[in-house]
Amino acid sequence: MTDIWNRLKSLRKSQGDARISGLFDADPNRAQAFSTEADGMLFDWSKTMIDAGARDLLLDLAKGANVEARRDAMFAGEKINETEGRAVLHTALRNLQASVTVDGQDVMPEVRRIHDLMAAFANDVRSGAFKGQGGKITDVVNIGIGGSDLGPYMATLAMAPYHDGPRTHFVSNVDGADIADTLKGLDPTTTLVIVASKTFTTIETMTNAKTARDWMAKSVSNPAAQFAALSSAVDKTAAFGIDESRVFGFEDWVGGRYSVWGPIGLSLMLAIGPERFDEFLAGGAAMDAHFRTAPLAENLPVLLALVGVWHHQICGYPTRAVLPYDNRLLRLPAYLQQLEMESNGKRVAMDGSDLTQPSGPVVWGEPGTNGQHAFYQLIHQGTMPVPCEFVLAARGHEPDLAHHHILLAANCLAQSEALMRGRSLDEARALMAAKGLTGAELDRQARHRVFPGNRPSTTLLIQQLTPYTLGQIVALYEHRVFVEGVILGINSFDQWGVELGKELALKVEPLLEGKPSPDHDPSTEHLAQVFRQMRG
Length: 536
Ligand SMILES: O=P(O)(O)OC[C@H]1O[C@H](O)[C@H](O)[C@@H](O)[C@@H]1O
What we know:
By secondary structure, this protein is an alpha/beta fold. The protein is 48% helix and 12% strand. It is built from 21 helices and 15 strands. The strands form four sheets. The protein has a six-stranded mixed β-sheet, sandwiched between helices. It has a five-stranded parallel β-sheet with strand order 8-7-9-10-11, sandwiched between helices. Strands 3-4 form a two-stranded antiparallel ribbon. A hairpin with a 2-residue loop joins strand 3 (101-102) and strand 4. Helix 6 (108-127) packs across helix 11 (266-272) and helix 11 (266-272) crosses helix 12 (274-293). GO terms for molecular function: carbohydrate derivative binding; glucose-6-phosphate isomerase activity; monosaccharide binding.
C-alpha cells in the first residue's frame, strides 16, 4: 500500500502544471472513457487530472485495501464495526428479500415484520383510519437529530412532487426556537409526533419530545396516543408512554446516519406512501447489487471514492463541494456532511495506529444555481482549488416550466466547463481592450478577470429525481464513504468524536446556572460568567 500511495503522489508531482484540458487533447475519447454508466445514471469524472496511469494506480489502491473482501464482509453481516462490536447492515433494510444472518440468526423476518407494520401504520394515518383526537392527521412532526433527522428531512424535501400524505415537519435543534417555530400554527388535535432516536437518550430529542407532549397535553386528553417512536432501544420508549403498537424498532447494526431506510424513514413513508417508499428502497437495493457485482473499474461507488481520494489525499485539496442542480436536494449537502465527516473524520486506523494519510475531507455545498451567486467566486478565483461534485437530473417535475430546467442544466454544465477551461490573461486583455482600456490600466483590470481554470469537477447525471433514483444516490454515497474508509483503514461506522462535547455540556450546564462546577478552563469560566451577567 505504501508503495502505491507513493507512486500516486509522485505521479501527481510529475503532472506539474499540466492541465485537465490537455488530457482531452491527448485522448479524443476521454469524455467517454472517464464516464461510467450504471442503471440509468452517468458519472462523468473526465474533468479531473486522473489519467490512465493514475486510474490504474487508484484501482490498485482499492484492490490493495481489499475493498471487495471488506464489502462482502459487510453484506454478510460480519462485525466490521470493530470498535463497537457491531455488524453494519443498513443494506438489509432495503433488500427485504435477502437472507442475512447475524450471530447465526436470520435477521430478515424481523426486518420484514417491522417494515410491514410501518407500512400498515402509514396507510392508516394516510387514510384516516388512525385519527388524532380532533380527526384525521394533517401534520406530522419528526423530532430527531443527526441521523434521525438529516436522512428523512433530506429525502422528504427531495420527494416533494410525490407528497400526498400529511404535511411533514422536522424539529432537531435543542434551541427552543426550532420547536416553537414548528408548532406555531399546527393543530395539536390532528398532529402526529414521531420521536426518532436510535438510542432514545439523546438530550436534544428527549427535551423536544417532552416539550411537544406538554404542548399537546394542553389540547388533548391523551397526548401519548398521538406519538410514535422509532428506536433501537424499544424498552426506553415505553417509559415515555408510547404504546408499543406505535413503536418501530431496529437493531444496533443500523448506524444513525445510515438509518433512513428503516423506521427512521417513517416520516418519508407517511408523506409519499409505502409504495413510493418501497421504490426508494428498490433504488438503494439496485445500487447495492451494482456495488457488489460490478468490476472495480466500472463500479460507481468505488470510482466516486477513488476520485475523492485523488483530490483529497493525493492532490491535497482540503474540501469538496457537493453542488446539486436540483432545488429539492437542498439538504443533500447537510446530509452528506454527516454521512462523510462523521464516518471518515478520524485520526486513527481500525487497529488504533495513527492514520498514515489525511482523514476524509470537509464536505460542504448548496444547490445550484444559488451557490453561483454566493461562493462560486472563491471556487473560480480563490487560491485553493475546490473539487466540485455536480448532481443534475435530465428532467424536472414541472413540464410547464421546462425552460427553467434547461436554464438550470445549462448553468450546471457551464460551471464545470468554466472551472476546467478558465480564462487566460490574453483573453482577459482582449476583453479589456475591447472596452477601450489601454496600458497599465488594461493590465490591471485584465488580471482581475483571469480565471486560472484547471479546476476539477465531476458530474452525476440522472434521468429524474424519483424515489428510485434518490435511493440510488443515497446508497451510492453511502458506499463511496465505505470505500474511502476502507482505503484509509478507518472504521467508518463509529463516532467517538461526538462524545466529549456531549459530556462537557452536562458539566457546563450548572456553570451557566451559577452552580458549582469545577475543572473548567479560564476562557469557559469567563464566557459563562459574562453569559450569566447578560441574562440578568
Ligand atoms: O438517533 P439518536 O440516538 O438520537 O442519535 C442522533 C445522533 O446523535 C449522535 O450524537 C451521533 O453523532 C449521530 O450519529 C446520531 O445520528
